[in-house]
Each structure stands twice: as C-alpha cells, then as structure tokens.
Amino acid sequence: QVQLVESGGGLVQAGDSLRLSCAASGRTFRNYCMGWFRQAPAKERAFVAAISWSGGGTLYADSVKGRFTISRDNAKNTVYLQMNSLKPEDTAVYYCAAARTVVTTKGLYEYWGQGTQVTVSS
After folding, report:
1. Confidence of residue 28 (pLDDT cuts 50, 70, 90)
2. The pLDDT value given to residue 119
3. Mean pLDDT, rounded, for 96-121
4. In sequence order, what are the beta bridge partners of 116?
5. Which is nearest to 61 in space by CA: 53, 72, 49, 73?
6. Taking residues 68-78, what's their average pLDDT?
7. Closest listed residue to residue 35, CA positions, set 107, 117, 120
8. Long-range residue pairs from 60-67, CB within 8 A, at least 24 positions apart, any chain
C-alpha cells in the first residue's frame, strides 16, 4: 500500500517556475515507478512524466519535454516535478501516481494522490 500527497501547486505567471512534490508513505516506495499526470477542466487526465524506481529512466509527454524534469529521492520517499517556462496551457490539477513499471498509461497506475492545482496566468 502506498499513500501519496502532492504539494507545491499555486498561481504563477507565464514564464515562471514551480516545483511540485509528492510525498509517499510506506516502505515500498522504492519498489514503484512514479508518474505525474494532469487534468485540465473538461479534459481527460493526461500523462506528463514518469520515472523508474532507481531514477535512471524517465519519460515525458512531448508537450513538456525540455521544460519539466521529474526526479525522486528514495531516502525521502518523495518524487518531484520541476516545471520551468510555464505556459497558460499548463494550468491543471497535477496528480502523482505509482506503478510497477515506467508507463504512460494511467490505467496501469495503482495508487494516486489527491492532486494539487497549478494555475498559470498569461
């Protein structure tokens, strides 16, 4: 069992940066690959980034490649999403999730956090 709690969201201007954190409970955190998804109003929840259990492998959605960086600290049971050069279209609720492998498919993620709101004004 893994419980996930996101933090770090907020209201920023276009071009600003934010770092999201996702704190996990449970000793099995290091056994899971972690992902970030986002859901904008009236849209499907979409893949943003994922990282392997060791941190050695990452995947990104094309829309965030080069601007967002996912990382993890297994000693702190935490995964991060550094978001730079934010755009209004990045506005969404951001969720972290845990899966057994590094995937982009949300249906394969077993555990989800409650989400944190990110709003980017133009």
Report:
1. confident
2. 98
3. 95
4. 94
5. 49
6. 96
7. 107
8. 61/104, 63/89, 64/90
